[in-house]
Here is the input.
Amino acid sequence: MEFPKNLTYAKTHEWLKKDGDLVEIGLTDYAQDQLGDIVFVNLPEVGDEVTMGESFADVESVKAVSDIYSPVTGVVAEINEALLDAPETVNGAPYDAWFIKVKDVSEEEELLDADAYEALCKEGGEA
Amino acid sequence: MDKKTPLYDRHVALKGKMVPFGGYIMPVQYDQGIIAEHMAVRTKAGLFDVSHMGEVIFEGPGALATLNHLLTNDYTSLAVGRVRYGVMCQEDGGCLDDLIVYRLGEEKYLVVVNAANHDKDVAHMRPNLLPDTTFTDISDETGLLALQGPESKAIITKLLEGGELPEKYYSSSQHVQLAGIDCLVSRTGYTGEFGYEIFCPADRAADLWDAILAAGADHGILPCGLGARDTLRLEAAMPLYGHEMDETVNPLETGLDFGVKMNKPDFIGKAGIEAHPITRERIGLKVTGRGIVREGEDLYAGGEKIGHTTSGTFCPYLKGAYAMALVTKGKVSVGDTVEADVRGRKVACEVVPLPFYKR
Here is the structure.
């Protein structure tokens, strides 16, 4: 289970990476492991607004559908279309498989650093 | 408090993700995941712990009459060593459970029931025994493994020390010695693939599990959890109690007519089934839109609601999403397009024949 130090983390198991003015958002290693084999990813469209604490995408594993929550409020600048055809990338390389890049970020929830997030996952008992 | 099967420690050691199911704590998958486990069964071999299933014995001069009274199928012609499916109905024809009957001797039958229905089934069976029938619940002392997949025969043959393996589909063989363990082996399963189900004493189940995994290592065997069990049975369009049938569904509505003998003089539920006009049918759907249609989604044809899905998932071997549904009879036929309402989004599905996958 990996928790890269250069990322920040939301309690709802998304990772964030600052990329200039953009914020890249993806799903953590812990989350993909909990979900199991992912077979569909549904993404918003470029230009859509995302709102802190609200769902912006969903992933379907064999077992269940799960909402992905945005830790920030802003506007979708880019989407990772490669995930639509290769959703298994989320399992294989969760920290390369970004979902969206967000611009015009106006609000950001309280995020965790790698150590704090790892501790949160360990509390869950299965990290 | 959920019970543990005799293999609980093995599941934990193999990094099984443990979840409550049918009153037991069971592995939903191991570390390679549902897709790898599913594909192992279709192309090589998979080993399942199904010790949570219930096993009861009906014995004595009245055993056959009791089974014919309790169950929808006719067991009169069931030969010793053969196996037959059946449904147990309540008086109004609703399904209490579906089950498998093994004739072990002239007057001895083994019945395997769903784990989640075990207590309810036993409570229904005991007061409905006909005279000269002994009923014994052997669930707790019985271990049950399912070895499924095209390599199953090569693997089990390596462990064979005595007795004979059953050859025919839906036949069984007692006192088969596998790795020093006395087993009942049947050519049955719940995956749509070639395979065996193996009953053994509960206290030897872990030894048998270890022996099969070791013998199967060169054949690509994987331990498989409930997740793959569900995707495999759905791909093969096998009904699951609580999904394709329950106490509100009569077995003729859900496509189980092959296991319901209405020409038997009587059985519990016969009058209820006869009194109930058949207005629904079970159909198969291939999802042609994006995403997965799971159970409990409303289905529409031409804007009219025609029913709901009873099971649905991603089928790894067919590489697509499939579902089964109970719909108003005669509304749609194979080739038609229907829409499922998935979380407010309309997803297109094509009506396709059952089963989706056949070996």
Observations:
- Chain B has a mean pLDDT of 97.
- Chain B has eight helices and 21 strands.
- The helical segments of chain B are 8-13, 34-43, 63-70, 118-125, 152-159, 205-216, 226-235, 270-275.
- Residues 101 and 111 of chain B are 5 Å apart (CA to CA).
